[in-house]
Amino acid sequence: MNIFQIERLTKFYGPREVLRVDSLEVKGGEILGIMGPSGSGKSTLLRLLNFLEPPTEGTIRFLGKTIPGNGNPTLDLRRKITMVFQRPLLLSGTVRENVAYGLKLRKEKGKDSRVEEILRWVGLEELASLPARTLSGGERQRVALARAMVIEPDVLLLDEPTANLDPYNVSLMEEIIASIKEQRGTTIVLVTHNVFQARRLSERVAFILGGRIIEVGKTEKVFTEPQDPRTAAFVQGEMVY
């Protein structure tokens, strides 16, 4: 089943076109890596998938339903998606309070046990009572990931989740992301400029450049037999603009 189906999607900021995607599918239960250099349109695409802003033109279908042109789906659909940003904003309060915030807003029962479970999963149980804003960068990113996953979304959108982390925390975050897919079957769209990360985590990858998807396919196929010379250059570590 396709979770997302995009057709003839464009996004303009004023007169400037920043994104043009003729067609893209996100399949249920997969990790789709969106890779490309900085400024290529990756984060803009993710924001459209999260309905943070509407497309200028085109169609987004989510779980078989066409999203209105204003990009504002019903609340029940919005609640099936959550997003972790490159620089997440943590609330004042403890780690535990940050993780529980979404459940509190939704007034869901049994939240305490779910919060403790997710804290153990991301390795933050011993830090649960500390002020969240005093944590290191890697720990803060894990708080944001835990806060996203405690509400059990169908779709997790990740915008450069390890861009500012040291190698140890990158490895730790990647292990958690892989376990989310394996244990919960969550559909994940991972935006990254790190080709190695895209290859390690994704089942399929899309290479985006200048706001356009150049190539999309199974990860190993794209990396070992790219169809476009620009893709070949990018996965080999060359500078592509």
Task: Explain the overall architecture.
By secondary structure, the chain is an alpha/beta fold. It has a domain at 1-73 and 189-241: P-loop containing nucleotide triphosphate hydrolases (Rossmann fold). The chain is built from 9 helices and 10 strands. It has helices spanning 42-49, 75-78, 95-106, 111-121, 137-149, 167-184, 195-201, 219-224, 229-235, and strands at residues 2-13, 16-27, 31-35, 57-62, 65-66, 81-84, 155-159, 187-192, 204-209, 212-218. The strands form 2 sheets. The chain has a 6-stranded mixed sheet with strand order 6-7-8-3-9-10, with helices on both faces. Strands 2-1-4-5 form a 4-stranded antiparallel sheet, covered by helices on one side. Strand 9 and strand 10 (212-218) form a beta hairpin. Helix 5 packs parallel to helix 6. The radius of gyration is 18 Å and the shape is globular. The two termini are 34 Å apart. 37% of the residues are buried.
